[in-house]
Amino acid sequence: MENTLKGSCIIGQSGGPTAVINASAFGVIRTALDADCITKVYGAANGIKGVLNDRLYVMDEEDPHELELLKNTPSSELGSVRYKIADPDKDDTDYKRILEIFKKYDVRYFFYNGGNDSMDTCEKISRYMKNVGYECRVMGVPKTIDNDLYGTDHCPGFGSAAKYIATSCMEVSKDARVYDTGMITVIEIMGRHAGWLAGSAALASYCGSGPDLVYLPEVNFDYEKFCADVIEIYKKQGSVLVAVSEGIHDSNGKFISEYGSNLAKEKDAFGHAQLGGLAVQLADEMKRRTGAKVRGIELSLLQRCGAHLASGTDLNEAVLAGKTAVEAAINGESGKMVAFEREIINGEYSCKTKLLPLESVANLEKKVPLDWITPEGNNVTKEFIDYALPLIQGQPDRPVENSLPRYARLKKVLAK
Amino acid sequence: MENTLKGSCIIGQSGGPTAVINASAFGVIRTALDADCITKVYGAANGIKGVLNDRLYVMDEEDPHELELLKNTPSSELGSVRYKIADPDKDDTDYKRILEIFKKYDVRYFFYNGGNDSMDTCEKISRYMKNVGYECRVMGVPKTIDNDLYGTDHCPGFGSAAKYIATSCMEVSKDARVYDTGMITVIEIMGRHAGWLAGSAALASYCGSGPDLVYLPEVNFDYEKFCADVIEIYKKQGSVLVAVSEGIHDSNGKFISEYGSNLAKEKDAFGHAQLGGLAVQLADEMKRRTGAKVRGIELSLLQRCGAHLASGTDLNEAVLAGKTAVEAAINGESGKMVAFEREIINGEYSCKTKLLPLESVANLEKKVPLDWITPEGNNVTKEFIDYALPLIQGQPDRPVENSLPRYARLKKVLAK
How far apart are CA A121 and CA B109, in angstroms? Predict the structure, then answer.
């Protein structure tokens, strides 16, 4: 019987952290600790690197209350990693080592929580274990503020980042319009190739006060058109608030952030260019052209770790994703990623889970549909708002101490 | 009888906005609307400029529920201004105009909500009106995130900004330590000459997770010592989080932000240099010296408009300051600023108001005591924590719509 595969499990966290990635970890850990067939629950220190380096924390040793506080704790509490694992058909060194560790700790369940690149890692491990005949159920738990995972309606992490962005844009929108002498403010938002986060800035405008213009990386950025857009509003209103994705690029695919910067651009382990400095650059250009007072604001790491503004919907779904992965694995599933399906029943949003083969999601990107961007390319449409608004709803309880967030304090006892 | 001075009142907002300046405006407006001797309540559009330009909003026309929502609304809802008014003994043009408007609307009470520069404006108007024999009670309501107003234990606006900074530093501290490959993160915090806000970053460390190093502008910044401090922690821990005030300067008084930047620095209407870009500059230097991955984060406008993280203590005190100003004026006071006195009764913080002559506070700055900064000059002491921690306590109700902040929607009917 498949249901009775007995053994221990590992949960690993990977890629850029989010406000709710630990909520998914909690969903996995809590469900696994409560499952009879799972004998021990290990948390890998820094994702797959923790497996390779034999650095596993024993979750069974943790205080249940502290584990529960993971729901309140931003970033990846077990530590994260950006490590591109080789194709097992070309170089199986890492996989041999993983197998060795799996055998050492009798690991029969492996849960990996991450984005596109992590699903790729997950898929390769699953494939390798199958090929060598080691029975281990491998499940991917989705995570990314970028919301660009393929095959799922949305990703855990996105709703909370979107809520942080919308709230911050609402507040800055008030601040940036306070003087009658005019000001042009540019806010730079994460999202290399997909504009889900930048588009979320428009939720602020829809709900009362937000950016006048929003630029997504799905369409080419025309610098002259942008300047004309801004100047038109500046002349009319005096103050302008603009939200731009870090990944906006011209028709040749060149990032706008590379136009004016004289800093050498670096690339991360996956070959992605590191972007930044765009807001200040665009603001400076607008100053040159208009003489206006300007501000460039980069939301930077703040937008992905803003747990105090987590969306209740996102938080609950993040826990659900982790829980579903464990339950599915216990029921015999493997090589799958948990995904979300949206249901609108009598106008009310609800979300159910489904499973997708890892190979159907790994390394793919889901972008904002072009018809959710206005024909002028400087805002999103009502369809985008209708999509994103349900995902930011709800204010979870946020445990505090001295009115500051109270995060989980794990013992992190290393397995021997 | 002094108590029966009948006439209308004006409330003006001035200087950089805060998360709770509108709470003080609410305190003034609500108390004034409820006072029998105050016949009409006007809100000046953009502070003293609104008086000079005869642009006054009739607060009596506003929905009481919307006025109440001012407590939830960041920035200066009536509009702010940075306008340096002349000395009345040298040039009385503006004052003649102000008197004309006061007479036109029978203004007998004038409340001005702002920081150092605004108290200067307030003092000059008070003096002028006295000299020309026009009976008008002029009261200053303190406001500044910088917390540098003289003679008061603390200022409305500071506690909320401090809470925003501490919470954000706590979150970033989690995010910035997530990889085992190390990272040096520099967070730049407002505060030209006073380090109250930068010091507040240390509340995060005290309460669990925050910056390793904190640099205030009260002491000279030694660049080489700073680099050595960072490198020492980097070698020990792998990741380093640094908080710096925008106003850190060398022993010659030169701002560190001016070291590396090739952008022409501007000055604002008061002759203050506009600072910025410091975090990225320091982070880049650390990259050059260590090869580490680095991040520079500027909290920018976010820290002063973060109303969703307002401190309940700060919010209540901001309302109290406005209310006290009106009550004192009705009781015959004039030419004063409302100030706070801290009382610790059985270890419990409480705050009571007092009145200070405007001339004793205008244009002065209160800095962090030098003995609240560590001898190494790279952090604050427990005395600072004990001072600041009570000011960030309490989470007020934050009205929301669609899970985003619901701000006051005023009609802003102009007086004719």
Answer: 70
- pLDDT in the model for residue A37: 97
Q: Is B146 known to be catalytic? A: yes
Statement: residue A82 has pLDDT above 90:
no
Residues sharing a CB contact under 8 Å with residue B48, sequence separation 6 or more, in sequence order? B12, B14, B81, B83, B85, B94, B98, B112, B121, B125
Q: What pLDDT, in 10s, does the model give residues A137-155?
A: 999 999 999 999 999 999 9
CATH of domain B2-155+307-364+394-405: 3.40.50.450
Whether residue A99 is predicted with pLDDT greater than 50 in this model: the reply is yes
What is the distance in angstroms between the Cα of A332 and the nearest Cα belonging to chain B? Answer: 32
How many C-beta atoms lie closer than 10 Å to residue B39's C-beta?
17
The residue-averaged pLDDT of B75-80 equals 96
| B400 Cα to chain A: minimum distance (Å) | 10
Residue B176 CA, chain-centre distance (Å), reads 28
Interface test with A, best of B171, B200, B209, B305 (most A CBs within 10 A): B171
B205: nearest CA in chain A? A404
Q: Which residues of B touch A175 (CB under 8 A)?
A: 17, 74-75, 301, 304-305
Beta strands in A45-121 (DSSP E): 56-58, 107-114
Fold of A158-305: Rossmann fold (3.40.50)
pLDDT at residue number B3: 57
CATH 3.40.50.460 fits B159-305, yes or no: yes
Put simply, the answer to whether B295 touches A308 (Cβ < 8 Å) is: no
* CATH architecture for the domain at A2-150+307-364+393-405: 3-Layer(aba) Sandwich (3.40)
Instruction: For B136-171, write each residue's pLDDT tens digit.
Output: 999 999 999 999 999 999 999 999 999 999 999 999
Q: Quick check: B175 and A306 CB within 8 A?
A: no
Q: Which ranges in A105-149 belong to alpha helices (H)?
A: 116-131
Q: pTM score, two decimals?
A: 0.95
Helix, strand and coil in chain A, % to nearest 5: 40, 20, 40
pLDDT of residue A272 exceeding 70, the answer is: no
Domains A2-150+307-364+393-405 and A158-305 share a fold: yes
Above 50 in pLDDT, residue B272?
no
B388 close to B50: Cβ distance less than 8 angstroms? no
Question: How high is the pLDDT of residue A364?
Answer: 84
Indicate the residue type of A367. K
Average of per-residue pLDDT across B74-80: 96
- Assigned token pair, B211: 């910056």
Domain boundaries, chain B: 2-155+307-364+394-405, 159-305
What is the number of alpha carbons within 13 Å of residue A149 lying toward its C-beta? 32
Active-site residue, from A146, A212, A229, A314: A146
From the CB of residue B36, how many other CB atoms can be counted at a distance below 10 Å? 8
Mean pLDDT of A341-355: 96
pLDDT at A276 exceeding the cut of 50: no
